[in-house]
Amino acid sequence: MKKVVKFGGSSLASAEQFKKVGDIIRADEGRRYVVPSAPGKRNSADTKVTDMLYDCYRTAVAGRDFKKKLQNIKARYQEIIDGLNLSLDLSPEFEKIAENFAAAAGEDYAASRGEYLNGIVMANYLGYTYIDSAEVICFDENGNFLADKTDKVLSERLKGLDNAVIPGFYGAKPDGSVKTFSRGGSDITGSIVAKAVHADIYENWTDVSGFLVTDPRIVKDPEVISTITYRELRELSYMGATVLHEDSIFPLRQEGIPIHVLNTNAPQDPGTMIVENTCSKPKFTITGIAGKKGFASITVEKSMMNTEIGFGRKMLGVFEDNNLSFEHMPSGIDTMTVFVHQNEFAEKEQQIIAGLHRAVQPDSIELESDLALIAVVGRGMRRTRGTAGRIFSALAHAHVNVKMIDQGSSELNIIIGVENRDFETAIKAIYDIFVVAQI
C-alpha cells in the first residue's frame, strides 16, 4: 500500500502536534510521502505563520525594520525544533529569507516560506528525503500551473525514493521565482504528489473527523459522512461545504485515487472516504446539506415566451454582457427566473433591467433580494421515493416559505431557495427529517 499523507496547519502548529503526526506516519509503513502545511494557530488567540510572514514581508517592502518580526517567526520554528529535540539550525535559512525580503522577492515567496521551513523540520524529524517544491511543481511564466510537466518532473524525482517530504502550497516559474497556488494550496500539492506516485490512497489529515452532514455552526454535533463520491463532494463544496478545496480533487479523480479525510487529534476515528463511485449504500437518504446566503432573483414574465425561439439565450445574454454569472434558472410557461449573487447584481441592477427590456420586451420584471440557496445532496435520493415531498413537509412544519426548488436530472441534488432569515431554520429542519428521524 502506497500512501501520500497531507497535514494541515493545525496538525503542525506545535511540537506536541508534530509528535502526533510522527506517531501517525510511523504507525503505517505505507505512509511514504508527506506534504506539510505551514504551522497554524496553537490557540484561538494565536497567529498563523503564513500571516506572520505576510506581515513581515510587507513591513520590509515598506522600508521599515522587519528583523524583530522575522525573529518572532524564527522563534516559532525553534520552539518546535526544541520540543522535538532536533539538532537543526535554521539560521542560514532565515538569513537568506531576510536578504530576499529586503530585495522584495514577492509576496508569493514570502508566503511559501512557512511550508518550505516546516518541510525541512518535518524531513529532519522523520529522517525522510526533503524535496523543495520549487524544483518539482511547475508554473509557466504567467503563473499558470503546468500539470503535465509537473507530473513528469515529480514522478522522475520521486522514482526510487522510499520516503520523501514535499512541502505544500507552492512551486516555481521557469525563471525560478516562487509561485503559490491561489487557494487550497497544500491540498492541491498533496493531490499532485498522489497522482505522480500512483498512490493507492491520499490521506488528508486535518482537525475534523471527516466531512460532516452539515455545518456544525448550525446543527450541533452533526453526523460524519462515512463515504462520499466526487460528484457529491463537488455539489456540496460549491454550495459552501469546506474541508477540501475542489481544485485539489481533479488530479485524484483522473487517477481514481480515493481520498481519506482523517483527524490528527483523533486518528482512531474512521473519517470520510471520498471515492469515484461506490456500491455501498449511504447511512441516510441524503449525504449532506450545504448552502449560501446572499442571492437575488430576477423573474421575467412574458405571455407565450415558450413559443419564442431563442428567448432564454437572449435573456441570459444580458447577464453575460454585464459579466454576471447565474446560479440557477427555474422556469415556467410564461416566466423565467435567474438567481445571481446579490452583491454582484446590485452594482449593475439598472443596466440589467434596461437590457432585459431591450432584449426580450417582457410584460413585467420582478426582483427579490435577501435569498439563500440550500443544496440537499445524496446518491441515495434516486432510489428513494418522496424525497422532495419530505423536504417540503419538513420546511412547512418549520414555517419556512420555499421560494424555489430545482432538481437536477441526475437526481443527485435538490436546490431549495428560501429567505436569508430562514436559512438556519431550513437546514435544521431538513437535517432533522432525514438524519435524526431517518424517515
How would you characterize the overall build of this protein?
This protein has 439 residues and is an alpha/beta fold. 38% of the residues lie in helices and 19% in strands. It contains 13 helices and 15 strands. Strands 3-4-2-1-7-9-10-8 form an 8-stranded mixed sheet, with helices on both faces. Strand 9 (259-263) and strand 10 (272-275) form a beta hairpin. Helix 6 (147-158) crosses helix 7. The mean pLDDT is 93.
Helix content: 25-40%
Largest sheet: 8 strands, mixed
Secondary-structure element string:
EHEHHHHEHEEEHEEHHEEEHEHEHEEH
Strand order across the biggest sheet?
Answer: 3-4-2-1-7-9-10-8
Q: How would you classify the helix and strand content by structural class?
A: alpha/beta
Mean pLDDT, to the nearest integer, reads 93
Q: Tally the beta strands.
A: 15
**What fraction strand?**
15-25%
Shape: globular
- The total of helices stands at 13
CA-based gyration radius: 25 Å
Uncertain segments: none
Span of the ends, CA to CA: 39 Å
Helix and strand layout, with pairings?
Blueprint: E1 3-7, H1 15-26, E2 31-36, H2 49-61, H3 67-83, H4 91-102, H5 107-126, E3 129-130, H6 147-158, E4 164-165, E5 170-172, E6 178-180, H7 185-196, E7 201-206, E8 227-229, H8 230-238, H9 250-255, E9 259-263, E10 272-275, E11 288-301, H10 311-321, E12 335-341, H11 342-360, E13 364-377, H12 387-397, E14 404-407, E15 413-419, H13 423-436
Parallel strand pairs: 1-2, 1-7, 2-4, 3-4, 7-9, 8-10
Antiparallel strand pairs: 5-6, 9-10, 11-12, 11-13, 13-15, 14-15
Helix pairs in contact: 2-3, 2-5, 6-7, 10-11, 12-13
